[in-house]
Amino acid sequence: MTEKGLREILAADTKLSDIDGEAGRLWYVGYDIADLAAHATFEETIYLLHNLELPTREQLNRLNTFLVRERELHPFLARMMPTLAQNASPMSMLRTGISASSAFDPDGWDDSPEAEYRKAMRLIAETPTLIATYHRVRTDQEVVPPHPSLSHAANFLWMLHGDEPSDEDARVLDTTFVLYGDHTMNASTFAARVVASTLSDMFSAITAAIGALKGPLHGGANEESQKMAEEVGKPENADAYVRERLAAGKKVMGFGHAVYKTMDPRARVLKQLCEDLAERRNQPQWYQIFSSLEQATFEQKGLYPNVDLYAAGVYHMLGIPTDLMTPLFALARMAGWTAHVREQYADNRIIRPGSEYVGPKDRTYVPIDERA
Ligand SMILES: CC(C)(COP(=O)(O)OP(=O)(O)OC[C@H]1O[C@@H](n2cnc3c(N)ncnc32)[C@H](O)[C@@H]1OP(=O)(O)O)[C@@H](O)C(=O)NCCC(=O)NCCS
């Protein structure tokens, strides 16, 4: 029998990110994630993942100008939004919106490296607008146009809430985007690279990635972590809650990882952000509930938190509705997905793994009336 889940298989060479699962380390293009989380902005991270170097000030300014210019939704997408807001879940809206936006990309079917770079930047630029517009429409609030002088993260909060966030809140959100930006050959990135390897277009590859991220075993886990924390209600309930959940054969969401065998380095940063934000907001219960879940799950199952556990607490305290938490993961991962798609195009061979046949053999066709 094949080992399920392609665990030991190397699917590609990449220069984008690297993990040491035993040591709990993650690097983007050689920079430690903790270093980037402490110092880099999301815009610098986008540049790094797409150009393999941190930008000079001039390069960053040019990138910013391009991203800001491309934030507005095409009128067709804006017109689609009421239907999507009424009938589609946030991730289904995003999958559909990104797919539909292919029809209006000014580069059309140009697949030159320069056009692919511009398409990638447009996808990164428009994703926050899609999510915020969807939320404003579904809650019968006026749509807030993008703010040209705000950063990617601050502008998202502005479009979502209709007022300018504090610098502290904007930086917290920005740091979560840096942390979610890329993560080697995770399921959604692999899905994107498989589609790209057929030389299909960037939009198709990213649409596939969004579909993969939607699942609760991948990006859906941050929303599930928040729901779990709400069910727990008080830190003192965490121990019994985890015990019951495990006894019922259910997963504790936001814990465990296919690669990390210790604390996810992103969770370490998010835990601190969650603690600081809980203090600043005077909402200590959120940090306490998540940290008591961490303690109970480690004691009872030996599992460490992954990126999604404390991200849920941070997003909740920033006023992000629970069902927008996975779309925010997608917003940030758009940087990594698009960089991986470009990397795949640059050195491509169609991805076509084998399978081990375990069904019956050497059978002979039986006419339909003679079958039992
Ligand atoms: C991420 C995940 C899919 C990895 O799956 P995996 O690679 O198959 O995990 P492992 O092989 O390390 O699992 C080892 C054991 O721990 C269990 N386990 C792993 N994560 C668990 C969790 N969150 N809750 C309870 N048990 C868990 C597995 O069921 C398995 O138990 P078994 O040996 O009795 O079958 C899994 O940990 C999970 O479902 N976590 C919850 C969802 C989540 O937070 N996803 C976000 C990932 S960033």
Keywords:
single chain, 372 residues, mainly alpha, 3-stranded antiparallel β-sheet, 16 helices, globular, binds coenzyme A
Ligand inventory: coenzyme A
Widest beta sheet: strand line-up: 1-2-3
Count, helices: 16
Poorly predicted runs are: none
Structural class: mainly alpha
**Radius of gyration, in angstroms, nearest whole number:** 22 Å
The helix content, as a percent range, equals 55-70%
Inertia-based shape: globular
Order of helices and strands: EEEHHHHHHHHHHHHHHHH
> Major beta sheet, specifics?
3 strands, antiparallel
Distance between the termini: 30 Å
Beta-strand content: under 5%
List how many beta strands DSSP finds: 3
Mean pLDDT: 97
Layout of strands and helices, then pairs:
Blueprint: E1 17-20, E2 25-28, E3 31-32, H1 33-39, H2 42-51, H3 57-69, H4 75-87, H5 90-101, H6 113-138, H7 152-161, H8 167-180, H9 187-197, H10 202-213, H11 221-232, H12 238-247, H13 265-281, H14 284-301, H15 307-317, H16 325-346
Antiparallel strand pairs: 1-2, 2-3
Bound molecules: coenzyme A.
